[in-house]
Amino acid sequence: MTIALSKRRDCYVISFDATGSTTALGHQLARWQDCGASLTARDADLDDKTVRRREIRSLLTTLHAVRAQRSGRVIELVGEPGSGKSRLIAIAAREAARSGIRSLNARCTEADRGKPLLPLLHVLISQGISVTGLDTEPAAASPEGWHQPLGVYVEIRQALAELARDGALLALDDFHFADDDSVRLVENLVRTPVPGLLLVVALRARQASAQLLEVLAHGAELGSVRRLHLDALSVKQAAGLLGLPPEDKRLRHLHAESGGVPAYLLELAHGSTGVSAAGQQRSTTLLAEMSELNADERVTISAAAVLGGVFDLELLSHVAGLPHARTWAAMTGLRRRDLVRPVDHPAGYALRHRVVRDFVYAGADPTWRTIAHRKALELLTDRQVPVADRAGHIEQLLTQPQPTSPLLLAQAGEDALMEDPEAASRWLRAALRPAPGARPDDTVRLRLSLAYARALIATDEPAEARRVLREQLASMPGGPPELRSAAVVVCAQLDWLLGLHAEAGSLIRAELGRSAARPPLHAIPMVVTDQFVQGRQGNRAAMKQAAWCVRTAREQGDRVGEVGALTLAATHQMATGDLLGAQLTLRQCGAIADQVADSDLTGAVEYLAILGWAEHAVDRFADARRHLRRSAHIARRVGQRHLLPFILVGLSKTYLAMGPIDKAQWASREARDLAEPVGFVSIGSVAQVTEACSALELGLDAAEAIELAEKAARALPIDESWWRTDLTISLAEAVLTAGDAQRCVTLLTETGGPRLERIPLAKRSACFELIAQAAADLGDPVTAGECARHAEDIASRTLLPSHLARARAAQAHEHRARRQPDEAWPLYQQAADSFAEAGMTRAQARMLTTGVSCMPGDPETARPATSMLSLGRELARRSAAWRLYRQAEALQQHLEVAGRPAEPSREEDPLRETLTAREYQVARIAADGKRTKEIAAQLRLSSRTVEAHLSNIYRKLEVNSRAALASKVARAS
């Protein structure tokens, strides 16, 4: 017998002759079936939404093989609810009808579970066949259960055999709902399949009885049952089902959310339940599933829908309002119907799918839902679960006239402040809405207002936060003192950052006036804030107030308050010139701050920030960096973004002193990016100037950097005196680095006065050194000398390493201005050593490089110059001061020439009077007989440049050959 398989257009055709056995045909068909070939299924019959083509072809291949072989076969069609079992059966039935194969279809339901063999009975009746002796009601009192007589199974089997004479497809859909007698009949058909009959048993494995699963598993072992599992769709199949391109951004999200189940995928893609055709079908199916639930099961599944996600029995019972025993009984029924499933991580239960949850939630009574959400929120808050697990309940309650307990919303808003500040802002705004006819409690409203203001700050709305706090403080005369103090401090900080210094001071003084003559402990934060933002350092009354804060904090054991009070005291010591005393106070303060936990400093981040700024001013750079970084970390964690620009500018200045410069640029740039959009103009301007200084040191074009700095200086308000000094000093240093010495002097004297008396003592020494450097560049030794004496006077009083370094540097600048290099470079080296002691890496590298640049180019100084320059280059590289690094590299070439054997001095060699330094070098080397290329290699010059130098030498010395040049040089020596 010859068998051939060919494809014509869109179908496969079998060709064979009539001689030979049909067994051979059966074997050949089986081989094709194993290879996955589809014999008759036409792709044209499968529309674009048909994505399970492989399963359809497998099913149709089996159907035609059963018909051709006159054999019987059972297919166990398994899949999740909505996976497409019924659609697969419908396509198979359509193909069977097209091929002349009888198609029989029965569907089981939970309502018919107690009626024996009812689905099969419907099938036979539809074909005009009646079964005699079939009981439709079970016997009442059989202790072993009830089942049909064996003769009934024989009669049904014979009827099916007659129907399958020319081949038949019998599909039993939703067979997990089948009655026991139907299962026994299938067992009979599994053990002895009916020739020509393909039996498809479609079921949900989770809901099928153990008896049915055992029957089908045994059939698989016998070889009469083949399992066809409808797996989750792939992303490519999901794209085909939804008609979306594979690269669509929504596709992968929908695929993951649906779990690859087609019905869920369509429902999620087309919106809410019931909108699309697929949604309507899914709604009808779910409605049928819900119709069999009893009252407890209905309220339990509704409570599960309100909870969403994963829940436990206690939470479910609380929301449903049922005793635990009844809730557990209801859960047993819901699990049996696969509406609720157990989960492991975390341990608990969850609804079958989000689509089921949405359907049940939409069908619940709205009033009941609100009560259920409130119950869920209360219990979850008591359990202190993460705010993300409470967010859904809070959002559902916000639309209510009185959403829920204001304290619950306050706690949720505070917890969500860092994770989702926008949500926290919404929740706290809703909590602040007064209930109709209710009298607001001052304590609750003040707490809510403070939390709401912090949420607004975290969402970059400081002006609105300030307005909210001022309104609430003005309208509420009462409230706990600690809450009022915290609100006043935050509001005053915002006033200060927004440039409203007078308003900040008046607010604090008014609040302090509400207290008794001796302010209580909670006044310390207000005193610290008031003196800091008002710039009252050095004022006698303010110093007494600061001393009282220190005593009070110590008496009350308030370690956090002591940090703020000691920092305040140190600023007064600096203002009065006692910088050594300030150092001791800050050392003590820093030790206390290091022992206090971050959680205790969340309401006093400004203490650490002010401490860092003060430490920076007295050469404690490592401590300043540590405390500023810590304060930035806490401010980010607790949402106090309004303090970050102030903290980051201080950190940037510390990095400028210590290095690396690229971190200084990063900190200042972030400070500017945070300050400018929210209206913190002053601190934003200072940040921009600091960024320009960093960029200049990193090697940015000088003109571009100065333009950036000047733009920031122009943006600073005219009446802003608080930041004027810092901005001017930074700008003066930038313009001096860029080469504009005269402008540097003008900037500093205009701001500080002729003797810089308006500049704080801690910063005055640096200004004198800058002016001395500028004077040296301008050739003005008188001004440089005056600045050196002033710097020396300050250093003798303060004894700070940086001030000693500034004094030595100013003296070196004076000697440089007087053209006394031998006296200048040792002073530069001393200044570098003092800067090293202070930890100011960049300044140390600058002193070393400047010192080398003014050293005489003779062999005696070549060795120390090389050592100084090597160290300067390394320090510049380590601190990322690339402009300084390139200057050091340029000096390196000169040092290499100066390191040669002793050469005649300018006074001893008459050729020096005629030739330039470079021409003299070329002449001496050429006189030794070296060729042009050798000279160029030794001096690291081009051959063309050497030739130009030789031409000038010949002309000036009136010689015309190398020999004459050698003779002239020899006579001069």
Q: Mind telling me which CATH architecture of the domain at 51-231 this is?
A: 3-Layer(aba) Sandwich
Give the strand order of the largest sheet, numbering strands 1, 2, ... along the chain.
4-5-6-3-7
Derived from helix and strand composition plus strand pairing, the structural class reads mainly alpha
Radius of gyration: 45 Å
Mean pLDDT: 82
For the record, the CATH class of the domain at 51-231 is Alpha Beta
> How much of the sequence is in beta strands?
5-15%
The N- to C-terminal Cα distance equals: 120 Å
| CATH fold field value of the domain at 51-231 | Rossmann fold
CATH superfamily of the domain at 51-231: P-loop containing nucleotide triphosphate hydrolases
- Report the principal-axis shape: elongated
Would you give an account of this structure?
The chain is mostly helical and 973 residues long. Among the domains are: 51-231, 3-Layer(aba) Sandwich (Rossmann fold); 236-270, no CATH class; 440-513; 535-633, Alpha Horseshoe (Serine Threonine Protein Phosphatase 5, Tetratricopeptide repeat), CATH 1.25.40; 740-902, Serine Threonine Protein Phosphatase 5, Tetratricopeptide repeat, CATH 1.25.40; 911-972, Arc Repressor Mutant, subunit A (Orthogonal Bundle). The chain is built from 47 helices and nine strands. Strand 5, helix 6 and strand 6 form a beta-alpha-beta unit. Helix 6 (180-191) packs parallel to helix 7, helix 20 (442-458) packs parallel to helix 22 and helix 26 (559-575) packs parallel to helix 28. The chain is elongated and about 140 Å long.
